Amino acid sequence: MLDAAMTLLDTHGAAALTTRNIAEALGCTQASLYRHVRNREELVTLLIDRAISVASAAPPDGADWAEKAAWSSRRFRAHLLRHPGVASLLRGTERLGPNSPAGMQYSLDLFITAGLSPRLASAAASSLATFVLGSVHLNLGLDTSDPDETSHRRLLFRSRDAVAFPLLVQHADTLAEVSSDEEFEVGLNALLTGFRVLIQTMDTTRDQGLPGVKRSGPDGGPIP
């Protein structure tokens, strides 16, 4: 059932993901389908849950926390790029399936073991997931490895006004060749480097939020 739903989602998009269409793809009635899922929302939850289980699968033995985080992030991104329709369905915690708490536990354990407080571990895990999703959304339908895409980008940059956009014109060839994979790896490494600095510099026994970020109370005033 989930395989049929994923195929439908990949082929025709989220709008086509209906219980009627899935039943037709499976060659059964909607009534038969409802013996397995109550409605479309439950089906969507299960599809999202599958993606989360992919991201929280056991990483290679011997990896440290940063290597595990990078491995899981790459794995999650690869799954979403193969199934871009799933990325459009991810939006917060209202769709938690059976694997979702395990994924949250995995992420929290990763960053708490690394030395962050529970609050910062949660924020770090969420920021990493947000980055992965943003990377996927930004590059949906874009193949930067396609020679035609590279050529179009080069032409776009070269054709700008050299006075108004000197850097675009000057570095047109280089900018046109930057791939989405390269962009992702730079961002991922920057995040992990920031987490390392955070772990090394902050006193994790005091749960005061990110350094330099002022926390506000309900009235807008500072928290003592």
- Helical segment count: 12
Unreliable parts: 214-218
Strand content: under 5%
End-to-end gap? 53 Å
Count of beta strands: 0
- Helix vs. strand class: mainly alpha
Share in helix: 55-70%
What order do the helices and strands follow?
HHHHHHHHHHHH
Q: Which sheet architecture does the biggest sheet show? A: none
Alpha-carbon Rg, integer: 22 Å
The overall pLDDT, averaged over residues, is 82
The backbone outline, from C-alpha atoms, is flat
Provide a brief overview of the structure.
This protein has 224 residues and is mainly alpha-helical. It is 65% helix and 0% strand.
Kindly list the characteristics that best describe this protein.
single chain; 224 residues; mainly alpha; 65% helix; 0% strand
Describe the structure.
This protein has 224 residues and is an all-alpha fold. 65% of the residues lie in helices and 0% in strands. The protein has 12 helices and no strands. It has helices at 2-12, 19-26, 30-33, 40-55, 65-82, 84-89, 100-114, 118-139, 147-158, 166-170, 172-177, 180-201. α5 packs parallel to α8 (118-139). It is flat and about 65 Å long. The protein starts with a helix and ends in a 23-residue tail after the last helix. The model is unreliable at 214-218 (pLDDT under 50).
